[in-house]
Specification:
Rossmann fold, five-stranded mixed beta sheet, G_OBG, GTPase Obg, ribosome binding
């Protein structure tokens, strides 16, 4: 019991120190529009100058911009209030007030914006440089120049600026990858990612070594490539909050292929696969519609005869391959399977 408590405390500290932030909630307040001007032309030798009040400036927007230069929402973690500037007042001579300065939030690709009150999805950022207005600034008021007419030649009024909008927003990151690795802790997911890509996830001989998702670009036959995502291990009951729960499962919702990994020394390969499938279904039944592959890891400990015997335990209908990340056994065949699945989908 003491050892389990010690491990739990260690994992908690590691997660607290992590720089991977995939969820932030903040108050977004756009700028109010500037008021229009009530002004009359005053010049020498012009005894009856008419109205010439200018319009107020637009209030600043809150804008979300996609960038490839950041990959988490860490820089927004401590921003509880994001406020844009108000527009300036209009002036005489039909001069329009300056617009309020926009507040631009740079986010990684794969970020989704939601209304915190209703949970409604507003938009998602998928391209570098893509900009979307999150909270629109108030319109500037019209100056009295707009209200002159044949029957009202000297209007002594103008419009006030429109109020800005204040709302609570959630930004949620879902990593963009072609393949998502799914498996129990210590199934060899991080070892595989480090073997076939330049990613260097933390690897250890204890459960939950991976506490945050990792991305790796996998080269394939020349100059082709695909992106693989490694998420923390799932255990039975994850959908009810056990282990690391379902905190990181959102990162495989965007993957076109799910690569299930079960170690060759598992007591029952089919049962482990069934449990993993069940946890995904509890989280989001739509995940079961994705193409699935199965890799039986740590196969360097098996001989050909044992592999043939274990083939009987493999679930039917799922393309599978026995691999070893350490000895590089069958990794090229695994890449072929993944590449084929990507382009068939």
């Amino acid at each position: 019991m003491a050892r389990l408590l010690s491990l739990a405390f260690f994992l908690y500290q590691k997660m607290a120190d992590s720089n991977f932030i995939d969820y932030v909630k903040f108050c977004s307040r756009s700028g109010a529009g500037g008021p229009g001007s009530t002004h009359f032309r005053r010049e020498k030798h012009v005894p009856k100058g008419g109205p010439d009040g200018g319009d107020g400036g637009r209030g600043g927007h809150i804008i979300v911009r996609g960038t490839t230069q950041v990959w988490t929402l860490l820089h927004l973690k401590y921003k509880k209030h994001v406020i844009a500037d108000a527009g300036k007042s209009g002036e005489g001579g039909r001069r329009t007030g300056a617009d309020g300065k926009d507040m631009i939030l740079e986010v990684p690709l794969g970020t989704i914006a939601k209304d915190a009150e209703t949970g409604e999805k507003r938009f998602e950022i998928t391209e570098d440089g893509q900009e979307v207005i999150l909270t629109r600034g108030g319109r500037g008021g019209l100056g009295n120049d707009h209200f002159k007419s044949a029957t009202n030649q000297a209007p002594h009024y103008s419009q006030p600026g429109e109020e800005g909008i204040e709302e609570w927003i959630i930004l949620e990151l879902k990593l963009l990858a072609d393949v998502g690795l799914v498996g129990f802790p210590n199934a060899g997911k991080s070892t595989l990612l480090s073997s076939i890509s330049a990613a260097r996830p933390e690897i250890g001989d204890y459960p939950f070594t991976t506490l945050v998702p990792n991305l790796g670009v996998v080269g394939y036959r020349g100059d082709q490539s695909f992106v693989m995502a490694d998420i923390p291990g799932i255990i039975e009951g994850a959908a009810e909050g056990k282990g690391l729960g379902i905190r990181f499962l959102r990162h495989i919702e965007r993957n076109s292929i799910l690569l299930f990994m079960v170690p060759a020394d598992a007591a029952d390969i089919a049962e482990q696969y069934r449990i993993l499938l069940g946890e995904l279904e509890k989280y989001n039944p739509e995940l079961l519609d994705k193409r699935r592959l199965l890799a039986i890891s740590k196969a360097d400990m098996l001989d050909d005869e044992l592999v043939k015997e274990m083939e009987k335990e493999v679930p039917e209908g799922v393309p599978h391959v026995f691999i070893s990340s350490v000895s590089q056994y069958n990794l090229d065949r695994l890449k072929d399977l993944i590449w084929q699945a990507i382009h068939e989908g």
